Amino acid sequence: MTVQHIVIAKFRNDESDEAKEQVFEKLSQLLGGIPAIKDFHVGPPILPGGARGFDFGMTLRFDDTEGFFEYVQHPNHEKIIAYLQPIVKESIAYPVDSPAQSKL
């Protein structure tokens, strides 16, 4: 099984492009320090019109649910929450446990 964790969020204020880049860099730094994460992506939507007002998203991949729960309990996860809390007004987190799929 592979766990995909998807998070989408809206900024609280109208952040500048430079401020948004700093957020993406900080998140990438914190996520990179969590060994259970196999790979991740952080950034703005490539189709903003279809994003329903959400400003950025993150996808994280784990080998299994144990890895996901290691991430949830990791100190960097707490740092991410504390960092985002004052600048995010709304977010949705959606972890999915599914068998590995391959592109045909």
From TrEMBL:
The domain of life for this entry's organism is Eukaryota
Gene3D superfamilies listed in its UniProt record: 3.30.70.100
* Entries under SMART domains matching the protein: Dabb
Question: InterPro entries recorded for this chain?
Answer: Dabb, Dimeric_a/b-barrel, HS1/DABB1-like
Q: Which residues form the Stress-response A/B barrel domain?
A: 3-96
The record's section on Pfam families has:
Dabb (PF07876)
Q: How does it assemble?
A: Homodimer.
Q: What is this protein called?
A: Stress-response A/B barrel domain-containing protein
Origin organism is Ceriporiopsis subvermispora (strain B)
Its ancestry begins with: Eukaryota, Fungi, Dikarya, Basidiomycota, Agaricomycotina
